[in-house]
Amino acid sequence: AQSVTQLDSQVPVFEEAPVELRCNYSSSVSVYLFWYVQYPNQGLQLLLKYLSGSTLVKGINGFEAEFNKSQTSFHLRKPSVHISDTAEYFCAVRAPSGGSNYKLTFGKGTLLTVNP
Amino acid sequence: DTGVSQDPRHKITKRGQNVTFRCDPISEHNRLYWYRQTLGQGPEFLTYFQNEAQLEKSRLLSDRFSAERPKGSFSTLEIQRTEQGDSAMYLCASSLDGDLYGYTFGSGTRLTVV
Q1: How far apart are CA B94 and CA B33, in angstroms?
Q2: Angle in degrees, CA B100, B102, B104, rounded to 5
Q3: Shortest Cα–Cα distance, B17 to chain A (Å)
Q4: pLDDT tens by residue, chain A, 116 residues
Q5: Which of B55, B98, B107 sits opposite A97 (nearest CB)?
Q6: Which chain B residues are within 8 Å of A100, Cβ to Cβ?
């Protein structure tokens, strides 16, 4: 089984400042890692994913994340945020395909609030 | 194809009533998932279909919940004898077989039980 811990429930930042949203996971097997964004009253949109290979992953809207196997982390970063980045961000994990391992396990989310 | 569609977007029901939600996945996607999201929490897995076969059900899915995907296309999620604790956002997602990517989520159905 896998679990995900998002270390901050809320992160307030000023516009154009850098931001890091932290995610740690626990798993007895290798995992795929994902970051999703959810705007109010909407479903989840995939920001980026790590499957294998380069540990630095670039996604949409200028976000990137770095997989650190030794620290079991997958932190999300953006060098300069915009007001429009205000949303809830979810880190998720799943085991590689096979059997019943298609389900995603999500963290509790981090609310990013970008202030002018 | 415009993505995963869910209907209705919002549903208010009285405690004890039955409700049914519909999900239309992306047409070529053979896998379909239902998740539930309560306030302040991440989505929690409910159940999963591969084509018309329901392959896994979470223990969160009590006997009052039933899901179907009769022809391997759209899916329905029914909740019988609703309780206030059922109030949540119900999210549907779909993906391709052997998929190495994240799912495509619908916009969800927000259920309020009064």
Answers
A1: 6
A2: 125
A3: 24
A4: 789 999 999 999 999 999 999 999 998 888 889 999 999 878 899 999 998 889 999 999 999 999 999 999 999 999 999 999 999 999 999 877 665 557 889 999 999 999 99
A5: B98
A6: 48, 55-56
